[in-house]
Amino acid sequence: MQGPSVEFEHVGLTLGNTRILENISFSIRAGSIHCIIGANGGGKTSLVRSMLGQMPHTGRITMHWHENRVIGYVPQTLDFDKTLPVTVNDFMAMTCQRRPVFLGSARSRRGQIEDVLSRMGLEGKGKYKLGNLSGGERQRVLFAQALIPEPAMLVLDEPMTGLDVAGREILERSIVEFARAGGTVVWINHDIVQVNETADTLTYIDREIRLQGDAREVLKGGVAAGLFPSLALGSTVAS
After folding, report:
1. What are phi and psi of 234, to 5 degrees?
2. Sheet (strand 208-214) strand order
3. Per-residue pLDDT at 101
4. How many angstroms separate the CA atoms of 157 and 115, rounded?
5. In the predicted model, is pLDDT for residue 103 greater than 70?
6. Angle CA(91)–CA(95)–CA(97) in degrees, nearest 5?
7. pLDDT in tens, 180-197
8. Is residue 235 predicted with pLDDT exceeding 70?
């Protein structure tokens, strides 16, 4: 697997009379975990949506692809009618086959679906209705569907929402393994301790870039301590 590198050059975004992003320039290495952090309303999700071609912007965003151009996307939550009679297998099939779901999963995909659900700790959950799962289980299903077909890039918008400790460990391990295999990860993350432990690089955005660079080095700096009062000399993050 070879994930893409990404270059942001003087990216700006204005909605109505509100300036959302201003002069955003940085790059993401192929095969790395890059976390985008910052205050609520600072433009993190808008930047990611711009990268995905979902929002108009100025400047340039260039993705340098290899053969595989598949992007797996995991939103913060799944908004759906919980009374719908959609099973986990139905939901997984919707994302990876053209065959109508009411005809069942395509035989060629069943093994993949079972395997990725097992990796997410969801063995035996395929026939459960999606609406009957806990919030954390649904979040793991969302992550599972992002892995079929095999992506070269994962785009994650705070995917740990609603997860218990075990669920967080499963997703965190899967993200790290994906990057080690050569995939590129762009991860909106508000957990600064997790960023320090897992990210290769980070960008702090509050309309413009406030911090940028190697995650551990950046988080040792005085500017980071000012942005994150919980950081203290000798703490887990600062060590």
Report:
1. 90, -5
2. 71-74, 153-157, 184-188, 33-37, 201-206, 208-214
3. 52
4. 24
5. no
6. 105
7. 999 999 999 999 989 999
8. no
Count of beta carbons in the 10 Å neighbourhood of residue 211: 19
The CA distance from 195 to 158, in Å, is 11
- Per-residue 3-state assignment (H helix, E strand, C coil) for the chain: CCCCEEEEEEEEEEECCEEEEEEEEEEECCCCEEEEECCCCCCHHHHHHHHCCCCCCEEEEEEECCCCCCEEEECCCCCCCCCCCCEHHHHHHHHHCCCCHHHCCCHHHHHHHHHHHHHCCCCCCCCCEHHHCCHHHHHHHHHHHCCCCCCCEEEEECCCCCCCHHHHHHHHHHHHHHHHCCCEEEEECCCHHHHHHHCCEEEEEECEEEEEEEHHHHHCCHHHHHHCCCCCCCCCCCC
Question: pTM to 2 decimals?
Answer: 0.90
List, for residues 36-79, the tens digit of each pLDDT value.
999 889 999 999 999 999 999 999 999 999 999 999 999 988 88
Domains of the chain: 1-70+152-239 (3.40.50.300), 78-149 (no CATH)
Contact 120, 141 (CB under 8 A): yes
